[in-house]
Write a structure and sequence with these properties.
mainly beta; 11 strands; four-stranded antiparallel beta sheet
Length: 113
């Protein structure tokens, strides 16, 4: 079965950095576009970033463009999100997703001084 397990979240000060990881299993990771989605308290999901199968094409929401970098290691079945220059408004639960149907359990990112 499809499993997506995120890690790397935590508490960070504004301006700091975090690197999220998502370990994928139960499917051929290299064959699927992958996504990072976040949900802040009281808000709907925001599709933050997307990467194609070969990592040659990426997409970022305007809210994170220039600060976040998505990447993947198909040999390790792992998706990453490098987050720099973090702001308080980046506080959310971050989910790794394989399209609309499969999401991980999420990892909490809190940006606060």
């Amino acid at each position: 079965q499809v499993q997506l397990v995120e890690s790397g979240g935590g508490l960070v000060q504004p301006g700091g950095s975090l690197r999220l990881s998502c370990a994928a299993s139960g499917f051929t990771f290299s064959s699927y576009w992958m996504y990072w989605v976040r949900q802040a308290p009281g808000k709907g999901p925001e599709w933050v970033s997307r990467i194609n199968t070969g990592a040659g094409s990426t997409y970022y929401a305007d809210s994170v463009k220039g600060r976040f970098t998505i990447s993947r290691d198909n040999a390790k079945n792992t998706l990453y999100l490098q987050m720099n220059s973090l702001k308080s408004e980046d506080t959310a639960v971050y989910y790794c997703a394989r399209g609309q149907s499969y999401w991980g359990q999420g990892t909490q990112v809190t940006v606060s001084s």
